[in-house]
Design a protein that fits this description.
Layout (H helix, E strand, L loop, with lengths): L1 H12 L3 E4 L6 E3 H17 L7 E5 L5 H11 L3 E4 L6 H11 L3 E4 L11 E3 L30 E6 L9 E5 H12 L8 E3 L7 H4 L2 H6 L3 E3 L6 H11 L3 E5 H9 L2 H4 L7 E5 L5 H11 L2 E6 L9 E2 L6 H6 L3 E2 L4 E5 L12 E6 L6 E2 L3 H7 E2 L2 E10 L5 E6 L4 E3 L2 E3 L1 H8 L5 E11 L3 E10 L8 H8 L11 E4 L13 H9 L1
Helix pairs in contact: 1-2, 1-3, 2-3, 8-9, 9-11
Length: 495
């Protein structure tokens, strides 16, 4: 699939840049991407890579990564990424779970000797691109597309347990492309790589980036000022990001000095956006704001708020199912519940994973009768809008009553003195657990007090749901995938 897409893109887009290295140091055109990935495919084949081989990319998010990804795909190999932001022990776990035929990595990410590893030096120009792997050979004949061919393994972050590899077949990658861009074969425009390439946001989205002729700008590290300068310089109309990145852009000095009026749409995923963040970003960018709810297992396709959503939908929900997606709310027994009741959110779509890699028990527990159990608690309101209540494992019990953190955060996040907030439990000798509000103040010298937050919530939340302590921080800790790290926050409030 990917091989034919790249070949077609090389013919249609030619010298249009496919990827631009960090700092605009050099560019790789669509034609060059096709040619060099052929050379690398020949080198991989020489090392025994073929249909069904697992190739692990333990690489930073440089141009080397998509070239190697495409090269392996041309051979019918299964590609998996190893997030370089993971700790060495976490990277080792991913490698062990994937059990790859070949590991392409760099010296600083190799984590010891492995005879399956090929060490590369990230290229500083197109001449140095994957010289350690490439062969001056036309490479093997491209394989025809096969919808049932395993294509990609994307590992979960593993912050709440051991990482699991979500396996996607070619048919699921095609469904993800249809969900995101429909039948479009051009018009991708410029965009910024906002997440690590090992993330679901790249691993399953690369086919449509290439099909639409997108020019992807890479960063050596995500910095709000650098991103804003790129947006202004390239006049980007659509900006994809995770919620903490949007918050950082709004706080950056460059937001006050640069012209970012070109932005028409903000597409924000990988975690909830607070009502205050949605309101501020919409106003200051002058752009529509769409919250995207999905997961690694769903293929990055799930629910979304409409670009023209009213205030209720835009700020307090994750919208409605996207095209081809069905949703239900289940009780603990797997029975759909009535409108307005909180239960587990389940999804069904042609884009969701085929299985967990080499984990049949986990697959059986997560894929039930064709539905994907998300582990997220939610409710569907009278308008068909979905409101999240938190993770099943994040729910805590105060004095016998269930407390759903996201419900509390959605309300308190609208407090004018709050820039970002997360609610986590702390053991209590009387109540069992109480809620602690971890708050990033909008103005550090005028932070909200516990009394401020409790007064704000009065009459809108049951008293048992309102936090009983507050912890002020400069920023919320994030996982390697850019999500709020609740485990670290729980440790903070207990220390």
């Amino acid at each position: 699939m990917l091989g034919s897409i790249v070949a077609d893109a090389a013919e249609r887009f030619g010298d249009r840049p496919a990827f631009v290295a960090a700092g605009d140091a050099w560019r790789l055109s669509y034609r060059e991407l096709h040619t060099v990935s052929d050379r690398v495919a020949a080198g991989l084949a020489h090392r025994g890579v073929g249909p069904g081989s697992v190739v692990a990319l333990a690489l930073p998010s440089t141009i080397d990564y998509p070239v190697c990804y495409i090269a392996a795909a041309k051979l019918g190999a299964i590609v998996t990424g190893v997030n370089p932001r993971l700790a060495p022990a976490e990277r080792a776990t991913v490698i062990e779970r994937a059990d790859p035929h070949l590991i392409v990595t760099t010296a600083d990410l190799a984590d010891g000797h492995d005879d399956r590893s090929v060490l590369i030096e990230p290229a500083t120009d197109r001449a140095g691109l994957l010289t350690e792997l490439g062969l001056d050979d036309p490479g093997p004949r491209p394989l025809p597309s096969d919808p049932d061919r395993p294509a990609v393994i994307v590992f979960t972050s593993g912050t709440t347990g051991e990482p699991k590899g979500a396996l996607f077949l070619e048919r699921q990658l095609a469904a993800i492309t249809r969900a995101d861009v429909g039948d479009a074969v051009d018009g991708g425009g410029p965009m910024i790589a906002s997440t690590q390439f090992a993330h679901i946001g790249f691993m399953t989205k690369l086919p449509w980036y290439l099909r639409t002729g997108t020019t992807t700008y890479l960063l050596d590290r995500w910095r709000a000022g650098d991103v804003l300068r790129l947006i202004a310089r390239e006049r980007m109309t659509t900006v994809g990001a995770v919620a903490p990145q949007v918050a950082l852009m709004l706080r950056a000095p460059e937001m006050e000095t640069l012209d970012v009026s070109c932005v028409e749409r903000l597409i924000v995923g990988a975690g909830p956006s607070s009502p205050a963040l949605v309101a501020e970003a919409t106003e200051r960018f002058g752009a529509a704001y769409s919250i995207r709810y999905s997961s690694t297992e769903s293929g990055g396709v799930g629910l979304a708020t409409a670009f023209d959503a009213d205030e209720e939908e835009a700020r307090f929900t994750v919208g409605r199912p996207r095209s081809g997606v069905e949703v239900q709310i289940w009780d603990d027994g797997g029975t759909p519940v009535d409108e307005g009741r909180i239960g587990e959110l389940v999804l069904r779509s042609p884009a969701m994973m085929a299985a967990y890699w080499d984990a049949p028990e986990a697959t059986e527990a997560t894929l039930v009768d064709g539905w994907l159990r998300t582990g997220d608690l939610a409710q569907i309101d009278r308008r068909g809008l979905v409101r999240l209540a938190g993770r099943r494992k994040e729910m805590f019990i105060r004095g016998g009553y269930n407390v759903y953190p996201l419900q509390v955060e959605a309300l308190l996040g609208a407090h004018p003195a709050v820039a970002a907030i997360a609610v986590v439990p702390r053991p209590d000798p009387v109540m069992g657990e109480i809620g602690v509000a971890v708050v990033v103040p909008r103005e550090p010298d005028r932070p909200p007090t516990l009394e401020d937050l409790r007064t704000f919530a009065e009459g809108q939340l049951a008293t048992y749901k309102i936090p009983e302590d507050v912890l002020l921080v400069n920023e919320l800790p994030l996982t390697a995938m850019g999500k709020i790290d609740r485990r670290r926050m729980a440790e903070l409030v207990r220390s």
